[in-house]
Amino acid sequence: VRFAPYRPPDISLKPLLFEVPSITTESVFVGRDWVFHEIDAQLQSSNASVNRGVVIVGNIGFGKTAIISRLVALSCHGMRMRQIASDSPHASPKHVDANRELPLTQPPSAHSSITSGSCPGTPEMRRRQEEAMRRLASQVVAYHYCQADNAYTCLVPEFVHNVAALLCRSPQFVAYREQLLREPHLQSMLSLRSCVQDPMASFRRGVLEPLENLHKERKIPDEDFIILIDGLNEAEFHKPDYGDTIVSFLSKMIGKFPSWLKLVVTVRTSLQEIIKLLPFHRIFLDRLEENEAIDQDLQAYILHRIHSSSEIQNNISLNGKMDNTTFGKLSSHLKTLSQGSYLYLKLTFDLIEKGYLVLKSSSYKVVPVSLSEVYLLQCNMKFPTQSSFDRVMPLLNVAVASLHPLTDEHIFQAINAGNIEGTLEWDDFQQRMENLSMFLIKRRDMTRMFVHPSFREWLIWREEGEKTKFLCDPRSGHTLLAFWFSRQEGKLNRQQTIELGHHILKAHIFKGLSKKVGVSSSILQGLWISYSTEGLSMALASLRNLYTPNIKVSRLLILGGANVNYRTEVLNNAPILCVQSHLGYTEMVALLLEFGANVDAASESGLTPLGYAAAAGFLSIVVLLCKKRAKVDHLDKNGQCALVHAALRGHLEVVKFLIQCDWTMAGQQQGVFKKSHAIQQALIAAASMGYTEIVSYLLDLPEKDEEEVERAQINSFDSLWGET
Q: Which end of the chain is more exposed for a tag (fewer CB within 10 A), N or C?
């Protein structure tokens, strides 16, 4: 008898694959001990107003991601760090071995040949700070990087799914993993599908409550644990019209976190108002004047770079000598220019090391004065003529416009999708891509990502007074991507159809044509999308577009011919209008009604949009639907009308509005079901649920002069439940 080997059941949750191009396998980590010390002190403090979490605030390129990655590298997920760090362009693949040090290792302590400007802390203090960092890292159980050029990392459902997937892979939470394996319903609650429909419920019931219970049962260690989230500001680029961004999601959920589960998050200085609702302590990385420790960090980094490279020493020594005064002058000059940006220092030293910048006079005229100038210099060296830049510009346009990193093959096809005559040959394309390889880094999954978000932003936008050379044109990139999607042989899936809609709207290629051809550009765009794909209705009713709808893309899909009465796969096959009424998405309801959606189309349980809106208490939607003559007296399969649904859930304003509606218009039941019946049922419904306000309102309704008594009778039996 041969037995099949026993395979333990696996968890169906998969962590997202993050890769951070600006952190390579050669990155070193210098300084920042004070940051770890302060995070540690705040999280351990007994003051509940600061110990829930810490926000690290800093400008772009100031090392926020490096701090997060340093903690990940030293945590139980450290092995994943090899996926997060990009292979550095300099490392030759032959020398890669499994035992290579993790990225962001600390260099050996500073050399003493050149004295640093400030005295380093005592060894005792250094040890305490090192301990703080190790202690924090040992508490890390999950992490998440938001990257604007990789849209999935910015969406709430993916965030919830990824955090859960990492939590159940951390050794401290073995008990949580075992519970997920024992209780498949918990895993399905955390599936991407469930996370799209109700991320809050998924997170609460799939993550927070199980962890809280395991903690009470002493099945997970009684200590503090940390979730790291990098770049909350990046996620704002993908803000849905309805539904949360990761920040607003956390702001609503933080009150439900157990006190022992902390957050350490980062945000860019210019966007720090997005975190005002998070009750966290803030640490600022760009307040150079107020914080001497930042100065020491920069000093230590400069020292490290100079000492670890003889090329740098040669290229900065005046007439062959490198003495303390020369060094002091150079380092204070660079520190001032950097304003605290590690990225500026790193790139400037890279230029010096390769001999592109040689400082032979003490005026430092050749040194670029800002990150923007560093990028300008890099591009000028790489593309000395306008025509050499024109050859790669379409590639950059596509990369800038895409919602996620693309493979070379994809970019190649997109570029060619825009050619009417002739095509770009693959060899020629590869040559152009090779020229961009220092800016567009190839990731492990073979897709390309910008070397740093600041470079991507520099390509699209400049500050006042900055040179506009090398500016890209995202609109052209959107156009090429839209053409590429339109030219796919196979069918586009729902997500791709939505993406095509996004690119068509951003490309806006019919701008100014409407006067010439007499057809508005929105109709031309609708025609375009209708010729490109068949699944317009399915895309309109796809889960993501139901729960986090994009109004403009939805309008485009409807113009292209999507069915506004399409039945969805949720709420008992409810039509789209029912789902949007249930969710309270007023703009979507208005859009569907504008294009003639059936106002009384019901789900299989017999509920109409009015019933869903009344039950959920969305007065503005109830009003919209009634303006479109929704049937007030429609009964669902349980014989309940909208008024009863509102009363059952305590929505007083909706109850008042529905009673004031004109019920004589409806009368489709030939007077069998009167307003008085509904009011009587509503009274019983409200009383059974204990909604006193509604009960007293219904009992105080004015008597009518006619024979029909409208006021609810306290002792009458109602026709629905036969109760009083």
A: N
How many CB atoms are located within 10 Å of the residue 440 CB?
A: 25
Residue 80 and residue 73: Cα distance in Å, rounded? 8
Q: CA nearest 347: which of 442, 454, 443? A: 454
At residue 69, what is the residue type?
Answer: S
Q: Is 102 a domain residue?
A: no
Pairing of strands 225-230, 261-268: parallel
| Cα separations in angstroms, 44 against 54, 199, 484 | 11, 29, 53
- End-to-end C-alpha distance for the chain, whole angstroms: 70
Q: Which pair of tokens denotes residue 164?
A: 């859960």
Position of tokens 């050859």? Answer: 391
Task: Read off the pLDDT of residues 163-209 as tens digits, 9 standing for 90 and up.
Answer: 999 999 999 999 999 999 999 999 999 999 999 999 999 999 999 99
Whether residue 273 sits in one domain with residue 150:
yes
> How many C-beta atoms surround the C-beta of residue 332 within 10 A?
15
> For residues 578-607, b (16+ Cβ closer than 10 Å) or e, as one string?
bbbbbbbbbebbebbbeeebebbbbbeeeb
* Residue 385 is assigned to a structural domain of this protein: yes
Residue with token string 């010439």: 516
How far apart are the C-alpha atoms of 538 and 535, rounded to whole Å? 5
Q: Are residues 280 and 304 in the same domain?
A: no
Asked if 717 and 671 sit in the same domain, the reply is: yes
Q: With respect to residue 553, please indicate whether it lies within any of the assigned structural domains.
A: no
> pLDDT digit string (tens) for 122-169?
667 777 778 888 999 999 999 999 999 999 999 999 999 999 999 999
Tokens for 706?
Answer: 């006619």
CATH of the domain at 59: 3.40.50
Q: Are 505 and 556 in contact (CB under 8 A)?
A: yes
Record the tokens describing residue 463, joined without a space: 């500050």
pLDDT tens by residue, 311-342: 878 887 766 666 777 788 888 889 999 999 99
The pTM of this model reads: 0.89
The residue segments making up the domain with residue 668 are: 631-724
Of 263, 284, 305, which residue is a domain's last?
A: 284
For residue 345, which phi and psi values (nearest 5 degrees)? -65, -45
Place of tokens 């204070």: 332
- Asked whether residue 28 is domain-assigned, the answer is yes
Q: Does residue 712 sit in the same domain as residue 667?
A: yes
711: CATH: 1.25.40
Put the strands of the sheet holding 447-450 in their side by side order.
406-407, 447-450, 440-442
- The residue out of 260, 284, 308 marking a domain boundary is 284
Q: How far, CA to CA in Å, does 11 sit from each of 166, 185, 371?
A: 11, 12, 44
Residue 355 shares a structural domain with residue 421 = no
Q: Which two tokens stand for residue 117?
A: 């400007």
Domain count, the chain: 4
Could you tell me if 639 and 698 lie in one domain?
yes
Q: Is the distance from CB of 412 to CB of 426 less than 8 angstroms?
A: yes
Let me know whether 424 and 330 are in one domain. Answer: no
The whole-angstrom separation of Cα 677 and Cα 518 is 55
Cα distance between residue 715 and residue 713, in whole Å:
6
Q: Are residues 136 and 278 in the same domain?
A: yes
Q: Would you give the distance in Å from CA 622 to the centre of its chain? A: 32
Contacting residues for 276 by C-beta, under 8 A, at least 6 apart: none
Mapping DSSP onto H, E and C, the string for 76-112 reads CCHHHHHHHEECCCCCCHHHCCCCCCCCCECCCCCCC
Phi, psi angle pair for 179, to nearest 5°: -65, -40
Per-residue pLDDT tens over the stretch 614-670: 999 999 999 999 999 999 989 999 989 999 999 999 999 999 999 888 887 644 544
Place of tokens 């009458």: 716
β-sheet bridge partners, residue 24: 86
* Distance separating alpha carbons of residues 19 and 651, to the nearest angstrom: 48
